[in-house]
Amino acid sequence: MSYTVKEKARLAMESLLDSCELVSGYSGGKKVEEAYTAYFAPETMWYNRVYIHAAENETLEATVSAVAAGVREGKLPPLISWLSTEVSSKAIRPFVKAEGYMNPLPVQEAMFLDLEGYTPAAPTATVEHVSADKVGEWADTIAAAFGKPTEHDGMVLIAADEHCDFLVHYEEGKMVAGMLLICVGDNAGVHEVATMEACRGKGIASSLMNCAMAIAKEKGCKYATLQASPMGAPLYEKLGFEAVGEVHTWLVPPPGMML
Q1: Is 259 contained in some domain?
Q2: Residue 255's pLDDT band (boundaries 50, 70, 90)?
Q3: Which is deepest, 80, 150, 195, 215, by most CB within 10 Å?
Q4: 145 and 46: one domain?
């Protein structure tokens, strides 16, 4: 089946929202409003967020204002995000800035790979599944590789979920790289791909991805999607992913947050 660029971008955003819904389902659930959806997962930073899907400028301004007030009142998650093909960044940016939001990370590329007819290459590095009791250690390893706060408690929540495949590469008995594959329906969502700096350039991330794509095809997924950082995008492009849109993420610090 062929998809338009806008449809591919939406599918790429859906894999992020699938992950938020999965984690929040084990935690605080979600709240669906006409202009946004909030996913409550306070055990995490990344998956505890509001997704803005209002398109009209008048609605955007009111939505951003309402969400910011909700964050300050402790009623909504501190992260907001939107997809460039659905919400104009040029339109929403003045509103988020006016409400005190900050841009905590670079714009990510929404990326898409058609798995039908795609044959993953054989991994060149050893890739293993992580047992549920080791997912906390996996999360700490990913955080150290990224240089970000750990999502330990949130990942432990979904450690045994049937939609999840936690993958890892060991060197000398230590976890040095890993990733998370979340398959929901036809969509294979790629998340948390990271390698310790000292181990980069060895093809480990490519092996993790090739293994993940093979798993996704075995599970019957028709496409794979992700949200790539500027550092990760070249790897995914080499594997056949195409950039189809942008994912913007901003943060309004809730009371007491240390930055």
Answers
A1: no
A2: low
A3: 80
A4: no
Q: What are the CA-CA distances from residue 48 to residues 39, 110, 190, 221 (Å)?
A: 6, 19, 18, 26
Q: What is the number of H-type helices and E-type strands within the chain?
A: 7, 11
**28: exposed, middle or buried (Cβ count in 10 Å: 0-12, 13-18, 19+):** middle
- Do 19 and 122 sit in the same domain of this protein? no
Whole-angstrom CA distances from 236 to 35, 40, 43, 136, 205 are: 32, 30, 29, 26, 10
Residues whose CB falls within 8 Å of the CB of residue 157, separated by 6 or more in sequence, listed in order? 23, 26, 27, 41, 43
The pLDDT tens digits for 78-97 are 999 999 999 999 999 999 99
> Which two three-digit tokens encode residue 173?
């008995």
- Can you tell me whether residue 107 is helix, strand or coil? coil
The pTM (predicted TM-score) of the whole model is 0.95
Whether residue 257 lies inside any domain: the answer is no
Range of the domain at 46: 5-109+247-251
Question: Do residues 136 and 229 both lie within one domain?
Answer: yes
In angstroms, the CA 6 to CA 88 distance is 13
CB 1 within 8 A of CB 216: no
- For residues 123 and 156, membership in a common domain is answered with yes
**Number of domains composing the chain:** 2
* Token couple for 158: 């979904």
